[in-house]
Write a structure and sequence with these properties.
Blueprint (H helix, E strand, L loop, with lengths): L2 E5 H8 L6 H12 E7 L2 E6 L9 H13 L7 E10 L9 E8 L5 H16 L8 E7 L7 E6 L17 H7 L1 H6 L9 E5 L5 E4 L3 E2 L12 E7 L2 H16 L4 E7 L12 E3 L7 E4 H8 L5 H10 L3 E5 L2 E5 L10 H12 L19 H15 L3 E2 L5 E2 L1 H4 L23 E2 L4 H10 L7 E11 L2 E11 L5 H14 L5 E3 L6 E11 L2 E9 L1 H6 L6 E7 L5
Parallel strand pairs: 4-7, 4-12, 17-20
Antiparallel strand pairs: 1-3, 2-3, 5-11, 5-12, 6-11, 7-8, 8-9, 9-10, 12-13, 14-16, 15-16, 18-19, 20-21, 21-25, 22-23, 23-24, 24-25
Length: about 550
């Protein structure tokens, strides 16, 4: 969970709760979704749940605390601004989305600047997926000239001085030599053009998602700020913009909107886009649903008061409550999220305790009885249990055991070809384990209980394998008979043709006329493929046939 550190004095100054005991303040913050890391020398260390990114700064915590204590829901208004930011259609295949906002008249000290930088990085790491989904830039507006332009440039085209350097560098130079460029170059590695935000004089504000220009560095003397958010998700960048804008507004600033004119040829709507938008979309939830999930009958006044304490505007329309969350509350996606805020605002400790209305008795699944009996049998026969990975490679899963490739689930983004499919059998996994332990003394006897996949079907399979100089078909048949006997199952066998086993030294296992598995001597070619130098026997059967 993201850790946020702030001083008690800063929290009290921003929230105005100077008449409250510190323990009471901490209790309220924890109830909203946090764990206390510690308090040392007047500095509070809190770990916040990832679903509340609006609390990733002291400004957000102070706002939430003020609303909870006062029960008054107030948002920072957004005044119409005259700044525009055009978008070049070339960014559609590079980094398609951008939004912007302005905060004027903010009074920043060193602590506020540090809090802003910390908030950016926490949003980058969480919502932003390490900048691949969202990247945020904050700039001193007095150093640049609107209107702004979001475009894409050649790797060696435009040069500027990036943060932390004193020399002009091209985008390609930054990706090769700048610390941030090296860290985040992978986000743009397959791009022929690089995104850039410029002002009216072609001065560089930002090379997203890598680095800002040094020209617009925010300091304690900065009062007017321009915020840009770029990324691959419009909803995500808009949420981050609203969080940063409202956090800066807590320092006496006023929020102004930025307009993006209609864009042709890019994945945007045809009408102008105006951001930030601090008030979100209304959501409706029924009064009965709230009382049912909270676990007690709440009056309309209780519901409205609880939501107001959590910073949500609400009003009743008959038995339905219409809730308008602020746009920076990106965690509110469903009526259940509204009901959770009702419970927090009402107070978990104030919800009456009650016994469950339905009394039930639990018992183990019948499959556990079968698995327990099988494990006991296998250990009694001298086998050791192993657990292997479900992800396999098609060559080892099929080719090396001489079986035709079948329809199995494939991984769309595998780490490598050796982990690109889900296994269809336990045999390759057991043989790989024996191969990896060739230096161990013989005999080696292993078994596994696990899942295999055939098309869209998942089945539970039991498998065993023995490698020994004297291993042969007679021992394989004896092992399978002992297993079936201890599972109290009637069975019979018939011939089968499995290329993984020696012809004439294998058999199919039948139960009530259905083939449920097989066993036999592993084919010499398979042994050679796994570098096994001794005879090996193996068997598998569907365990779910015994439940």
């Amino acid at each position: 969970m993201p850790s946020v550190k702030f001083t008690v004095d800063e929290l009290v100054r921003l929230s105005g709760v100077d008449d409250m005991e510190l323990d009471d303040i901490i209790a309220i913050i924890k109830m909203m979704g946090a764990d206390l890391g510690g308090i040392e020398d007047g500095v509070i260390d809190m770990e916040f749940f990832p679903d509340r990114p609006d609390l990733f700064s002291v400004e957000g915590v102070a706002r939430a605390l003020t609303q909870y204590v006062s029960g008054v829901t107030e948002y920072h208004p957004v005044s119409p601004g005259d700044i525009e930011m055009s978008v070049d259609a070339k960014v559609a295949d590079v980094r398609p989305y951008v939004v912007g906002g302005v905060v004027r008249g903010a009074s920043l000290d060193d602590d506020a600047v540090q809090s802003l930088m910390s908030l950016q990085e926490k949003l980058h790491a969480t919502i932003g997926r390490n900048r691949s989904k969202v990247a945020i830039g904050v700039h001193d507006l007095s150093k640049v000239t609107p209107p702004f332009r979001y475009t894409a440039v050649e790797p060696e085209g435009l040069k500027f001085i990036p943060l932390g350097k004193e020399e002009e560098m091209s985008p390609a130079d930054i990706l090769e030599r700048h610390e941030k460029g090296i860290d985040y170059a992978h986000i743009l590695e397959d791009k022929s053009l690089y995104p850039m935000i410029l002002d009216a004089n072609d001065e560089v504000l930002s090379f997203p998602p890598i680095i800002n220009g040094t020209l617009t560095t925010v300091t304690e003397d900065t009062t007017d700020l321009f915020i840009d958010c770029t990324g691959s998700s419009f909803e995500a960048i808009r949420t981050c913009l609203d969080i940063v804008s409202t956090s800066l507004a807590e320092h006496g600033g006023t929020i102004e909107s930025v307009t993006l004119p209609p864009i042709d040829g890019a994945p945007w709507p045809s009408e102008p886009i105006v951001t930030p938008v601090v008030e979100g979309e209304p959501m409706t939830v029924t009064h009965d649903h709230i009382s049912s999930l909270v676990g007690t009958d709440l009056s309309q006044e209780d519901v409205l008061t609880s939501l107001s304490k959590m910073g949500l505007k609400a009003e009743f329309h008959g038995d339905d409550v219409v809730v308008t969350p602020p746009s920076f509350r990106g965690d509110i996606l469903h009526p259940v999220d509204i009901i959770e805020d009702v419970a927090i605002g009402y107070g978990y400790n104030d919800i009456p305790m009650s016994l469950p209305k339905n009394a039930t008795l639990g018992r183990e699944f019948s499959r556990n009885d079968v698995i327990r009996a099988l494990r006991s049998t296998m250990v009694g026969l001298g086998f050791q249990e192993i657990v292997t990975l479900h992800l396999r490679g098609p060559e080892e899963e099929f080719d090396r055991i001489r079986r035709e490739r079948t329809d199995v689930p494939t991984i769309s983004n595998p780490i490598g070809v050796e982990t690109s499919i889900l296994r269809a059998s336990l045999l390759p996994s057991m043989l790989r384990m024996l191969s990896d332990n060739r230096h161990r003394p013989l005999p080696q006897m292993v078994f596994e209980i696990g899942q295999v996949y055939q098309g869209s079907e998942q089945r539970t399979v039991a498998g065993w394998a023995v490698i020994d100089a004297s291993a042969g078909y007679t021992q394989a048949k004896s092992n399978m008979e002992a297993i079936m006997r201890n599972l109290s199952s009637a069975f019979n066998i018939k011939s089968m043709e499995d290329p993984s086993y020696l012809e004439g030294r294998q058999a199919a296992l039948m139960k009530e006329g259905t083939t449920i598995g097989g066993y036999g001597e592993v084919h010499p070619e398979v042994l050679e493929n796994f570098e096994l130098g001794y005879p090996t026997i193996s068997g598998e059967f569907y365990l779910d046939e015994f439940y």
